[in-house]
Amino acid sequence: MTTPYSTPRADQATPAIARVYDYVLGGGHNFAADREVAEHLLAVVPAYRDFALENRAFLRRSALHMLDAGIDQFLDLGSGLLSVGPAHEIVHAVNPAGRVVYVDNDPIVTANVELSIGGDPRIGVIQADACDVRSVLGPRASRVLDLKRPVGVLAVAVLHCICDADDPRRALSEYHDRLAGGSMLAASHGSGDGLSPELITAGKKILADAGITFVDRTRAEFAALLGPWQPTPEGVVRLNRWRPEGTGVAQDDDVLGYAVVATSTGPPVRTPAAATR
């Protein structure tokens, strides 16, 4: 298989979670090592593919919800590769003037995203750790986003890649406190709830052997990461249960993760009306 990009910095022998995820979603931005990890994981936990697909569906639903609420600028944390249904395509289909900043700590990912967007001034790319809030919300973000107005923060399928030592709760609290009132957060988290301990251990070992971090958190542990963010009435629910569209294909126990949309507790800031879908 010919890969769609290759740079001097790309280590094709070392798997990367962004490329593993891309392969599971049916994308083409991956190498043989990534595909091998993905196939091993799917052999042990076939529902991982449902988890990936449900995350993309949740990204779309939550972004549309934010657009309906009047938010027209977005910060996509741990964005990964823009292979299937990226945030800017969702946003621009509703509001062509919408702004999106992608954030990822993988230099190969950010280089690929920069190539993909082709210098579009409505889209920014930042190479940074999602937990380094000061760097994320620095000058590069400010060139694309107006941080005095509400921002939609997308933390989809990224928090389970952040270990407790890096304190994701602190980071989410800091985004809450630094962003304008009326900002919103959409977050999802992988979880082994519903799997046997043996399957959880086997899946985590496949990822660990590939150098990929996965932190298995329960629904309550995920909810505790939100800090001051206030969930919508649905609360923390299975990925496929947050305002679903249609009947869906996955059973609850097959989803392997949870989702939530939450709002800032600060005073709301007036924003332009969202475009009509």
Structure description:
About 35% of the residues lie in helices and about 15% in strands. By secondary structure, it is an alpha/beta fold. It has a single domain, classed as Rossmann fold (3-Layer(aba) Sandwich). Strands 1, 2, 3, 4, 5, 6, 7 and 8 form an eight-stranded mixed beta sheet that branches. β4 (about 150-155), α8 (about 170-180) and β5 form a beta-alpha-beta unit. α1 crosses α2, α2 (about 30-45) runs antiparallel to α9 (about 195-210) and α3 (about 50-70) runs parallel beside α4.
Tell me how many strands there are.
Answer: 8
| Separation, N- and C-terminal Cα atoms | 39 Å
Any idea of the CATH class?
Answer: Alpha Beta
Computed Rg: 18 Å
Order of helices and strands: HHHEHEHEHHEHEHHEEHE
Largest sheet: 8 strands, mixed
* Sequence stretches where pLDDT stays below 50 over 5 or more residues: 1-8, 268-277
Structural class: alpha/beta
Roughly what is the average pLDDT, rounded to an integer?
Answer: 89
CATH homologous superfamily (4th level) name:
Vaccinia Virus protein VP39
Task: Please tag this protein with its features.
single chain; 277 residues; alpha/beta; Rossmann fold; 8-stranded mixed sheet; 11 helices; 8 strands; 37% helix; disordered N terminus
